[in-house]
Design brief:
The chain is α+β, with helices and mostly antiparallel strands. It has 5 helices and 6 strands. About 25% of the residues are buried.
């Protein structure tokens, strides 16, 4: 593997880390209905762990309701079970064909708790990015030690890795800021 491939591989891993953080954030309840709250939940569908979004249509008729319409109505009890086991604090109701989830408003204490949770998620994302940076820098140093690249290329490579790290940490911070805004905007209402 050469220096350029190492940089490209590092950036790919960093992008995936940021996407993972964003996906985790989408599963945090903010008092507003959105499909991300449940679409990634896994249920036991005929003995196979399956995501809800793969077996049901998920829609948002209004800002406080999520509607889940499974293509196979026999999956409703399993979807209900998964929602009740999750820490969303939502009570599902169904009419045998469609499941409705009413999103209750978050209490001030719960909002503060969720703010801490998303801060921790963001910090875990930053730690992952720094770990990827460290691993990439070690690869680059080894390339220099093995005489595959010159000392100048070592410094340029590490500089490039640091720029990528800074860029993706800023992205995590931006996502965190948006999520915090979502969590606190209802406090003022």
């Amino acid at each position: 593997m050469n220096l350029k491939e190492t940089i490209v591989q590092t950036e790919t891993r960093m992008k995936k880390t940021v996407e993972s953080v964003a996906r985790e954030f989408s599963e945090v309840r903010t008092g507003r209905a959105h499909p991300g709250l449940i679409e990634g939940m896994h249920i036991d569908y005929y003995g196979t762990p399956t995501m809800v979004k793969q077996i049901a249509s998920i829609s948002i008729p209004d800002s406080k309701t999520i509607m889940v319409q499974p293509w196979d109505i026999s999956a409703i009890p399993e979807i209900e079970k998964a929602i009740l086991k999750s820490n969303l604090g939502i009570m599902p109701s169904n009419d045998g064909k469609v499941m409705r989830l009413s999103i209750p408003p978050l209490s001030k204490e719960r909002r503060q708790e969720m703010t801490k949770v998303v801060r921790d998620m963001a910090e875990n994302g930053r730690v992952s990015l720094r770990t990827i940076r460290r691993e990439a820098n070690e690869k680059i140093k080894k390339m220099e030690t093995d005489k595959l690249i010159a000392e100048d290329d070592n410094f340029k490579g590490q500089e490039e890795v640091q720029k990528l790290t800074d860029k993706y940490i800023k992205e995590v911070d931006k996502i965190l800021e948006m999520k915090n805004k979502e969590l606190t905007e209802f406090d003022n209402k």
